[in-house]
Specification:
The chain has 18 helices and 11 strands. It is an alpha/beta fold. Helix 6 crosses helix 8 (172-195) and helix 8 (172-195) crosses helix 9 (205-211).
Length: 402
């Protein structure tokens, strides 16, 4: 955290985050990084399950929570009882944005339907994230990010051709949904600036995945082509792959004619650029496997450092295949503050991703560590908004309302 952090572009915006796990909270993280005041509502007994996820740090604390919980205040409210629902309704009256990622119909069951909330706060923007969206024949089904990845087409094309579909090692469906939800919030804020009107944003996990599937749908529509799993390559795009050096993997992308010519020179085989098998984009695509084998045979004679130096010298897009350990000491990561260190109450100093993207006049920042326990900020938030004193807070907590 930076003591001299500038207010972000969303300073003055109040966001109520009712989501759990990833999609809703990641949307809240993005908005919080850009300066919004994010008030996270947690269950009084359990809190957000994200507090327990990931490979544990000492004392069983989730290493992910300090990232997804940063720049947020935590209050507790039991939304399953009328008193808790009334508290939430009062909070939302003071808010600009509400984020939720419950199963469709849950807000309505709790007496917190978007229609009723907008009737009391017409400027409210409600970002709803779910597996299949708020309407349609599948809308009442339970859905997680992995299911959205499968339905949206991602899972089918990931992996080796002779094996079942694989997955990416992160929850990409959830974070894509959250990112599109954030885009929706920003677009709705622009509309509200012009008209004063709030609105509801309906974001589905599977549709967020579908949005990034490039030509998958028109390829089938116009040509009947179904894209299959292709391992580490993108069929017809060559060379663009991870190659083996003496001491590890290295990524090279030289699928443009001019860049391939420079790669051939770097390999000390300039004649490859004029070889009919490799001279054009289409030809390289047709001979992709043999070209990759040829490049791999060359990289196998060199170290990663040696190949990297040659790629830089010949201006060829290429790079090391980083692990987290590689990122920690990289000078470019340091120069751009891509990884930062945040002081937390229970975990000490934790390194994590910095804020992104970079804005020149109103940059994002980490101003507040993730709340250490559910309800950490009950006194601050409820005291400021509702004037509740310690006795009132203790009485409600004793009855399980907060």
């Amino acid at each position: 955290m930076s003591s001299d952090a500038k207010p972000g572009p969303l300073e003055g915006l109040t966001v109520i985050e009712m989501g759990t796990l990833i999609a809703g909270p990641f949307c809240g993280q993005i908005l919080g990084d850009f300066g919004a005041t994010v008030i996270k509502i947690e269950d009084p007994k359990a809190g957000d399950p994200m507090r327990q996820w990931g490979r544990s740090l000492p004392k069983g604390h989730s290493p992910w929570w300090p990232v997804i919980g940063r720049n947020k205040r935590s209050v507790t409210a039991n939304m399953r009882v009328p008193e808790g629902q009334a508290i939430v309704r009062d909070l939302v009256r003071h808010a600009d944005v509400l984020i939720e990622n419950f199963k469709p119909g849950t807000l309505e069951k709790w007496g917190l339907s978007p229609e009723s909330l907008l009737a009391e706060n017409p400027r409210l923007i409600i970002a709803r994230m779910s597996g299949y969206g708020q309407y349609g024949p599948y809308s009442d089904r339970a859905g997680f990010g992995g299911i959205g990845e499968a339905m949206g087409g991602w899972r089918y094309i990931v992996g080796e051709p002779d094996r079942p579909p694989a997955r990416m090692g992160i929850s990409i469906g959830d974070t894509l949904c959250a990112t599109y939800g954030t885009m929706g919030v920003l677009a709705a804020l622009h509309h509200r600036e012009k008209t004063g009107e709030g609105q509801v944003i309906d974001t589905a996990l599977y549709e967020a995945v579908l949005q990034v599937m490039e030509g998958l749908v028109p390829e089938y529509d116009r040509n009947g082509f179904i894209r299959e799993r292709s391992g580490s390559i993108l069929p017809g795009i060559a060379p663009s792959n991870v190659y083996s050096c003496k001491d590890g993997p290295f990524m090279i992308g030289a699928n443009n004619d001019a860049i391939f010519r420079r790669l051939a020179e770097a390999m000390d085989e300039p004649e490859l650029a004029d070889d009919p098998r490799y001279a054009t984009h289409l030809a390289r695509g047709e001979h992709q496997l043999e070209l990759d084998d040829r490049i791999n045979a060359w990289t196998a004679t060199l170290t990663v450092d040696e190949v990297d130096a040659l790629m830089i010298r010949h201006s060829i897009p290429a790079g090391r295949v980083y692990t987290a350990a590689d990122m920690m000491d990289d000078p470019h990561f340091k120069a751009r503050e891509a990884i930062v260190e945040v002081e937390t109450r229970q975990r000490g100093k934790v390194k994590m991703q910095g804020t992104f993207p970079k804005l020149s006049r109103t940059p994002s920042s980490i101003r507040r560590a993730a709340p250490a326990i559910p309800g950490q900020d009950n006194g601050e938030v409820y005291g400021e908004l509702f004037g509740w004193d310690f006795d009132k807070l203790a009485e409600l907590a004793g009855r399980g309302v907060i």
